[in-house]
Prior knowledge:
Elements: H1 2-9, H2 24-35, E1 46-51, H3 54-62, H4 69-72, E2 75-82, H5 87-100, H6 109-120, H7 124-149, E3 151-156, H8 161-168, E4 187-198, E5 217-221, E6 224-227, H9 230-234
Antiparallel strand pairs: 1-2, 2-4, 3-4, 5-6
Amino acid sequence: xxxxxxxxxxxxxxxxxxxxxxxxxxxxxxxxxxxxxxxxxxxxxxxxxxxxxxxxxxxxxxxxxxxxxxxxxxxxxxxxxxxxxxxxxxxxxxxxxxxxxxxxxxxxxxxxxxxxxxxxxxxxxxxxxxxxxxxxxxxxxxxxxxxxxxxxxxxxxxxxxxxxxxxxxxxxxxxxxxxxxxxxxxxxxxxxxxxxxxxxxxxxxxxxxxxxxxxxxxxxxxxxxxxxxxxxxxxxxxxxxxxxxxxx
Length: 248
């Protein structure tokens, strides 16, 4: 399985060569992988900021505890989760779905109302957490695409989110620039920065990953669960063993 080989190659690169650049073609493939990300209800309530301006990246580096990858990597993506009222996002999705599938929007009113009711039943904090989890999926797609293209990447949560908000003009009291955004709603930078470049200068074949038995559990029946090694499953070997208590 090529995906597993790519994941074994993947490593959070610590140091980048500023002279190495990702090609336009590879960058387009990474963006397409993000665009095709799965999300709950298919809404994709996130945006990605591609930061090219060097001064802006330097300011973001200061807000990122002076992590050099922010300025040295070929590209810097800031993943943003939608915040606030999500109803307009549902309306836009329904309109797009109707256009693509040649449907009347009235035929989708039931689904639209169902989704809005579910989202509105959440508190503001719950909605923010929910959209953040959807954004993580997009980040994962980007990193998997980089791994397949053999482009180094680094997910970064170590930064001051409120400072990012201010620097990028996405604080909760501001409206995104209509020249840059097709969605007129509040956006807040999500706590994950993505940067990539060809041939990073620090990588390793020794991944510090825990054994599969430590976190993969097989539910065999209602009596309990068994710890299962991924390699044993792939080899179609018989699974045996005790039924340990599921870790919490």
